[in-house]
Amino acid sequence: MRLALGNTVARDGWEVAFQSNAVGVTDKTQRLRWSERQDRAPSLDLADYRLQLSRGPIRAAVGNLSVGTNRYLLSGFGSRGASAAVQLHRAVAIDAAAVNGTNVVGWDNVFGLAESDHRLVSTGLNVELIPSRPGRYTWTSRHSTAPFSRAPASRKAPSPTPSAAAATAYRSA
């Protein structure tokens, strides 16, 4: 069973949008968090949600977000977290976001920010160099940090990539 809720309300310049999906499964092995919790995995679990508030040039959101627009650094990374953005001028915008280092499902870590050492923080400045031709000539500066010092206790650490394995081997030699 899939339960989806969503609504958008606008009044006096404010806009609030909400969307959520919950999944209910009777077969224990098909539950969203079966690999993490086995028999303790809830039969009805939160798959994703997003709550966004905006007024004029200001926007804030919590829930499942997509972060980053730089194709070489960070592009469309999706996870639970919080973000804010301000359109300062028609040609200048700034944004910031903090999201969990891996995808999150369930009710436990609803904001995705519970583990400070498993978080990705991203800030950005976008400038349209020729405002009369939006999107054509854009300068983007993005800063991202990911202070992963350990894998969260509730998840197994991912197997290292070849470059991470080589770096580990180099450090230990």
Which regions contain 5 or more consecutive residues with pLDDT less than 50?
154-173
Counting DSSP E segments of at least 2 residues, the number of strands comes to 8
Strand line-up in the sheet with most strands: 1-2-3-4-5-6-7-8
Instruction: State which percent range the strand residues make up.
Output: over 45%
Number of helices: 2
Question: Main sheet?
Answer: 8 strands, antiparallel
Distance between the termini: 53 Å
Class computed from helices, strands and strand pairing: mainly beta
From N to C, what is the helix and strand string? EEHEEEEEEH
Mean model confidence by pLDDT = 77
Q: Roughly how much helix do the residues carry, as a percent range?
A: under 10%
Radius of gyration: 19 Å
What is the 3D shape? Answer: globular
Describe this entry's structure for a reader.
Helices cover 9% and strands 51% of the residues. It is mostly beta strands and 173 residues long. The protein is globular, with a radius of gyration of 19 Å. It starts with a strand and ends with a helix.
